[in-house]
Amino acid sequence: MLLVGDWGQLQSVDAGGAFSLLAAARPDTPELTEVHRFTQEWEKTASLGLRHGRADVISTYIAKDRVREGTTDDMMDAAYVAWATDVKDGRTSILVAEAMDMVIRLNQRARADRIVANPVGDIEVNLSDGTQASEGDLVITRHNDRRLHTVRGGFVRNGDRWTVTRVHADGSMQVQRHDVDFGGSVTLPAAYVAEHVDLGYAVTAHRAQGMTVDTSHVVLTGSTTRENFYVSMTRGRDCNIAYVSLDKPDEGHAPPEPDEVNAHTVLCGVLQHLGGELSAHQMIVAEQERWSSIAQLGAEYETIGAVAQRDRWVEAIKNSGLTDAQVEQVLTSPSFGPLTAELRRAESNHHDVERLLPAVVARRSLDDAEDIGAVLIRRVQKAAQPRRGKRRPSPTLVVGLIPVADGPMGPEMAEVLTELAALMEGRAMALAEKAVEDTAPWLKRLGTPPTTAAARRRWLHEVRAVAAYRDRYEVEGRRVLGEPKNEAQKVDAARAEQAIRRARAIAEDAANAQNGRSRALESRGRTIG
């Protein structure tokens, strides 16, 4: 498959245990598969350099023969040929280009070659990008629609890839989910096709977000942003190659002199090209705030935790009763990362994951499951719910929201996780105290701050969970929790709601105790008088 231009997330840990950005992923879209994507060890480290904009890492990619250079037309041709060769050899592959006109050209070329090699279907339908599709084409859907379900129950999602199996005269089409052999079929209505379907041989980096393939072929120009460069060069497990256009300088920035234009200079410029248009001062302030936010720190914690615990979860999945083929499907699926997060959440609720996972696997056959990992997530969620009338110890959570990453791991990872947890706790408490100082309107639901030191500490402990939630999901205004936008946020909103109830109870108990002491003193005064 081909691909073009968004942004990813990763972070490094140095020998002293210090951390730098490992995952800029928003909590609602954690790309945990990325941390175990690469088969080449050097690429795991080098990709971090791309994310941080370190120019010296470009030499590494050049030395590893991962960079080509030439005119735009030559680079598009070279990338296309390499992609086509990989696909012919049975590899999953993507081609990343810089702009929509490139994507359309590549899609049209791929479709033309497909028709020559496999001329099936006479009916064509017009797609949203101005191209056409017919039976046998690869397409991509660009809009979630839960009303459209495959045979196995998975709904049509933004970014899903499909093979067209039949086109109808009314403009609707029957499609089969790409790389799914059975049960992934659905009929897309004509209106959906016309508005939300593109050819899927080439896609933008934004569309590539979340994809994992064997190889990635990336067409770059001087106007490519660092974010798009990074995400495009982290899609392939085995190989990611940059095809650098030398005849399309970035018009918004001072280009190098003509005799200095080469792949190295263009890519160094790309690393300096951030997507934002803020002033230098605004950028510094915004970056400092973003890197210290619970959203950022929480994403880093989640991702490092996934890295640190990966081997443990792999072993647990292998010992869960799945067949070898099913294990391989889970480990290579995009749902593997969310599954490990769910296992960590269950463990934070004091479940024995090594016993829980085999139990949910044995519950019912998984032979007809389209995505085994997604099915296991639902089963683990259901099995880990507290039984009615049975109290469990409070879950072990950082800032009252994020399950603690625990268990056997390397000392460096453990130290970084401890530091991140401490940073989040410090940030959350500072936000809570600032809200009290400013008499923030959203505090009203949490009750009046207690006056005694002990009660105030316990109350602030609950407030800090709510403050962390608001910081993590960028909630503003008077409403305490805002409107959760996805399942992950709903889980955190439920935890924050519990913190609200506990804070209000502490405030009420403290107020009642204070009133009792006041009445006692008043009564004593009357007696003495």
Describe the fold and architecture.
The chain has 17 helices and 15 strands. The chain is α+β, with helices and mostly antiparallel strands and 529 residues long. It has 4 domains: 1-97 and 202-276, no CATH class; 121-199, SH3 type barrels, CATH 2.30.30; 294-403, no CATH class; 439-524, no CATH class. The strands form 5 sheets. Strands 10-9-8-5-11 form a 5-stranded antiparallel β-sheet. Helix 12 (336-348) runs parallel beside helix 14 (372-383) and helix 16 (453-472) runs antiparallel to helix 17. The termini are far apart.
Strand order of the largest sheet: 10-9-8-5-11
Describe the biggest sheet? 5 strands, antiparallel
- Say how many strands there are: 15
Characterize the overall form. elongated
Please indicate the count of domains: 4
How many alpha or pi helices? 17
Q: How much of the polypeptide forms β-strand, as a percent range? A: 5-15%
Low-confidence stretches: 1-36, 251-258, 277-288
As a whole number of angstroms, the C-alpha radius of gyration is 27 Å
- Find the structural class using helix and strand composition: alpha+beta
**Range of helix content:** 40-55%
